[in-house]
Design a protein that fits this description.
single chain; 584 residues; alpha+beta; six-stranded mixed sheet; four-stranded antiparallel sheet; globular; DAK2 domain-containing protein; DegV_domain_contain
Length: 584
């Protein structure tokens, strides 16, 4: 395990945080009652980290070779991605926390650097919020920094730091600091209902703080290689049955959220509806290009217009978030300060009406899924599942103009775009930018294989909110491991050794993992390796050149060694490879 951070560890941290937030998103949304009970904190945090992950991936790819990306470039890419993609109050604060951390980690990636990073992050977040309130994400960030200070001070003397013996923590002093920060944040989160009345009345902990605990748990796991011990902590409170009775602590549970999302939402509902009536009507968010001296004036103007003001960023680029009754005035203030863009205005009443439990309405008629696919069989399969396929023509993937035309042709105000292979991802991203300029809301899910697209379509629900649908589809795609079989055209070096022309290659998650003599042998080895990590369903997509008995023989192999795993076969018709494999 690393004793200093490097770009690979930062990338692992970001990916782990994204997966953990994907799992916790619904519960975090359900306990979101402050500053506005709009039920989207978990979704906003997920989308903010997703933007950070995409920016970091782009920097990693641009470096040209694993290990070439310097740590300063990695943390700056992470912070920049979070800044430009920040959503909501919590996402904006998280972006500032990551920016504060990046400024210190760019200088040093050891335990002292991480301690300084957490301290600077907390200070930067407090400065970004116009009127800081304790019992929120800010309190949790400060507690994490305090715990990191204590941990590093204890390391040289081998004194247990905040309940953690440093010598027992993988990753050395760096791991000790990360683990202590997570533990301190979790303890602070459990105390938030006693600091903020709206949380105590609703019987929940702070949603933004809960998300920050998830991010810090991911950091600890990335450094140590082990998920941190959640430990017992009171994280939810139950209301007394009679009106006016005192609130009491519920049974303690692991520091992830207690109870189902529906149960917590039900407890929070009375307070939530009251707050929606009392607060400002609109949430306004935009990116702003402006000099620093203009931002001070902007803060004062927006502070006079509304509340929940958070302005984060620097070096000429800012992310502005505010709740107001006059959305136009908030945007005009940005125009006077500089150049606002990516402007998003949300009416809180609309947000409440479009929560996941609601269905039907205009959203059912306003959303489409567009997918880039190869092969007539896959095109038919995607169309049957409700997507609009954009097929390969004459062995060539469609360009950005073709994809953009397909998105426009869908005639929807909201579009989910599935590239379904690495080769189409850049073209799909360019197409999305083109169509966004036309006023269409487009979300690109970075599916790397057609089997990931199939998994995403399986959970697609056009009746729920767009962001929630995108998050669910992204999580389903990300949880699907993929592989493909191909035949080597010439001798070459691979991750699995030297292959000869005619060898069958088994590629798992894009890398050659197996070199075999035929499709059945190689496919069986690939399936065994993928299922060794667990799985409930195998999807086999047969290419145009696949032998007639390939699917039956591989299905029999799965059944003989993995009795509880189902196997589904689809005729894909793709020409580039004889078999695609997905494991969910």
């Amino acid at each position: 395990m690393p004793h200093t951070l490097d770009a690979a560890t930062v990338r692992t941290w970001c990916g782990t945080a994204l997966r953990r937030l994907g799992r916790a998103r619904e519960e975090i949304d359900a306990i979101n009652v402050y500053p506005v009970a709009d039920g989207d904190t978990g979704t906003n945090l997920y989308l903010t980290v997703d933007s950070a992950a995409r920016a970091l991936d782009a920097a990693w790819d641009a470096a040209g070779h694993p290990g070439r990306l310097p740590l300063p470039d990695a943390v700056r890419a992470l912070a920049h991605g979070a800044l430009i993609g920040a959503r909501g109050n919590s996402g904006t604060i998280l972006a500032q926390l990551l920016r504060g951390m990046s400024e210190e980690l760019a200088e040093r990636g050891d335990a002292e650097g991480l301690r300084r990073a957490l301290r600077r992050a907390a200070a930067a977040a407090y400065q970004a919020v116009a009127h800081p309130v304790e019992g929120t994400m800010l309190t949790v960030a400060a507690a994490a920094a305090d715990a990191a200070d204590r941990a590093l001070a204890a390391v040289p003397r081998d004194v247990p730091a905040h309940g953690i013996a440093p010598e027992a923590v993988a990753g050395g002093p760096l791991g000790a600091v990360a683990a202590a920060a997570h533990r301190g944040a979790r303890d602070a989160l459990a105390a938030t209902p006693g600091q903020l009345g709206v949380l105590e009345r609703a019987g929940v902990v702070d949603a933004g703080g809960r998300g920050l605990v998830v991010v810090l748990a991911a950091l600890t796991e990335a450094i140590s290689g082990h998920a941190p011990d959640p430990g017992p902590a009171p994280v939810a409170f139950a209301a007394a049955a009679s009106a006016g009775a005192a609130f009491t602590a519920a049974a303690t549970a692991c520091a992830e959220v207690t109870g189902s999302a529906e149960a917590v939402r039900d407890r929070a509902a009375p307070d939530a509806s009251a707050q929606e009536d009392d607060g400002p009507a609109f949430e306004v968010i935009y990116l702003l290009e402006a000099p620093e001296d203009a931002v001070g004036v902007l803060r004062a103007r927006l502070d006079a217009l509304g509340d929940s003001l958070v302005v984060v960023g620097g070096d000429g680029l800012w992310n502005v978030h505010v709740h107001v009754d006059d959305a136009g005035a908030a945007i005009e203030a940005g125009v006077e300060a500089g150049r606002p863009y990516r402007i998003r205005v949300t009416h809180f009443g609309d947000a409440a009406r479009h929560r996941p439990q609601d269905s039907g309405g205009a959203a059912d008629r306003a959303r489409a899924v567009v997918a880039v696919v190869e092969g007539d069989g896959l095109a038919a399969l995607y169309a049957e599942a409700g997507a609009l396929p954009v097929p390969h023509r004459d062995g060539r993937a469609p360009g950005s103009a073709d994809i953009a035309d397909a998105v426009r042709g869908a005639g929807a105000r909201e579009v989910v775009l599935l590239p379904c292979d690495d080769a189409s991802r850049d073209a799909a991203a360019a197409a999305a930018e083109q169509v966004r300029a036309d006023g269409v809301r487009v979300a690109l899910i970075p599916t790397r294989s057609a089997v990931q697209g199939i998994a995403a379509l399986a959970v697609h629900q056009p009746g729920r909110r767009f962001d929630e649908d995108v998050v669910a589809m992204t999580a389903a795609a990300g949880a699907t491991r993929f592989a493909e079989l191909a035949v080597a055209e010439h001798e070459s070096w691979t991750m699995a050794g030297v292959c000869q022309a005619g060898d069958t290659l088994g590629m798992i998650d894009g890398d050659v993992a197996v070199i075999g003599g035929n499709l059945v042998e190689t496919g069986s080895i690939v399936l065994d390796r993928m299922l060794a990590a667990g799985g409930e369903m195998v999807t086999l997509v047969l290419g145009s050149g696949a032998p007639d008995d390939l699917a039956d023989r591989l299905r029999a192999h799965v059944q003989s060694g993995h009795l509880a795993v189902d196997t589904v076969v689809h005729p894909g018709g793709q020409h580039t490879c004889p078999l695609l494999i997905g494991v969910e």
